[in-house]
Amino acid sequence: MNTIKNVIRTGLYGSTLGAAAILLAACAADVVKDPGVAKARAELTDLQSDPRLAGRAPIAIHDADTAVRDAELPQTDPVVETHLVYIAERRVQIARALAQTKYDEDQRKTLSEQNGQIQLNARTNEANAEKLKNDNLQAQPKKTDRGMVLTLGDVLFSTGRSDLKPGSVENLDRLVTFLGQAPDRTVRIEGHTDNRGGQDMNQALSQKRADSVSLYLTGRGIASNRVTSVGEGYNSPVADNNTDAGRQANRRVEVIIQDPPA
Amino acid sequence: MKTANLSTPILVAAGALALAACATVPLPPNDAFQAADIAISNAENDHAADYAPLEMRTAHEKISAARADAMQTDEVQVAQARPLADEARVEADLASAKAHLGKAEAVNQELQKNNSTLNQEIQRGPGG
Questions:
Q1: What pLDDT does B20 receive?
Q2: What residues in B contact A114, CB-CB < 8 Å?
Q3: Whether A111 contacts A66, CB under 8 Å
Q4: In-domain check, residue A27
Q5: What are the tens digits of pLDDT across the range A106-126?
Q6: B9 shares contact with chain A (CB less than 8 Å)
């Protein structure tokens, strides 16, 4: 456009100047810049004003800025201008990609922290669920014709073992407190099992478990003559031994709080 | 026209300068070739072809064209070697940058996936 105008205008100066004039016209600064320059500048400004990215690739952004400045300079040769725009556009893209990469890498810390928080929440939830389960299992004494019966579920012991599980003694501590306040009461402790395994094994296991509870009570200061322990084996089920839930209910220790002799 | 008469010598001088500038025969731009070769080799080490295949192809094409131009006898073609090599280099740099970004995004997506899987497991509750 301008080139053509220049050619026409310079033609007026005569044929001797023709060769130089045409050359000049070809090299004359184009007033209209390649639109790619403005586009590259706009994309760079966009990147520089993005608070997440602007500070994350300082060298690449500086290089991009230099490349865009070079492209913005008035050029005598459109081929050179096209080349400089080509470089500038890509330098801006490189700067954006590197800044975004750094941003992603920085995000990983947040993501790991979130992961830690999720795991922490999970543990808290589990602990709450466990506490709820324990609260549900907290034994309530029932009045029967044998006296008050406190049924302790199978949470006291691990499978096949007769030593008390740590942290399972909350109900027993309540019993100790009660017996301390009512010195005229005596207790009979009965161990019960499900019907898996032989009679002798279950008999022995239930006796040992009743003994463990008895030992715990006397260890906490209850006089041994107030405590008797009996192994009942699987002879007195309270639920169906053919189901998991039934067997779990049958594995229990019953504490019968006997009324004082009248 | 007086102004035309005055500007004539200036025009001649400027034209001569422009001619002189264009007449310089450039040496083969070995520094630009080397820089482009290094950039392409770095990009290949980054497996950039997996993330930016077009950029990688363009970089290879441009460095080949640059070397071919440098061997020509025509001055204009020889002069194109350097800008072509520079374009090959920036293209390879862009391919590398895209490869780095692609890898970073893949890692983050994996982390996000883990977090949401964990969240789902928790929401199903214990014993689930």
A1: 53
A2: 115
A3: no
A4: no
A5: 999 888 888 888 888 888 877
A6: no
Give the end of a domain, one of A105, A129, A157: A105
For β-strands A186-192 and A227-231, DSSP reports them as: parallel
Residue A85 lies in domain: 33-105
**Reported pTM:** 0.54
Q: Are the C-beta atoms of residues B44 and B23 closer than 8 Å to each other?
A: no
- Residue B92 structural domain: 28-124
Which of the listed residues A77, A105, A133 is the one where a domain comes to its end?
Answer: A105
Provide the CATH number for the domain around residue A221: 3.30.1330.60
- Per the CB < 8 A criterion, the answer to whether A91 and A64 are in contact is yes
Query: Considering only CB atoms, which chain B residues are within 8 Å of A87?
Result: 86-87, 90
Look up residue A13 and give its two tokens: 């100066």
Contact A187, A254 (CB under 8 A): no
> Of the candidates B14, B83, B104, which has its C-beta nearest A101's C-beta?
B104
Q: Assess contact for A75 and B83: CB atoms under 8 A.
A: no
For A105, nearest residue in chain B (alpha carbons): B104
Per residue in B42-64, pLDDT (tens digit) is 999 999 999 999 999 999 999 99
- Residues of chain B with C-beta less than 8 angstroms from the C-beta of A10: 11
Do A196 and A252 share a domain, yes or no?
yes
Please state the ipTM of this predicted complex.
0.76
Q: What are phi and psi of A148, to 5 degrees?
A: -80, 130
Interval A25-41: pLDDT, tens: 554 444 578 899 999 99
> What is the strand order of the sheet A186-192 is part of?
A142-144, A147-152, A252-258, A186-192, A227-231
Number of domains in chain A: 2
List of long-range contacts for A124-129, beta carbons under 8 Å, 24+ apart: A125/B122, A125/B125, A125/B126, A126/B126, A129/B125, A129/B126
Alpha-carbon Rg of chain A, whole angstroms? 45
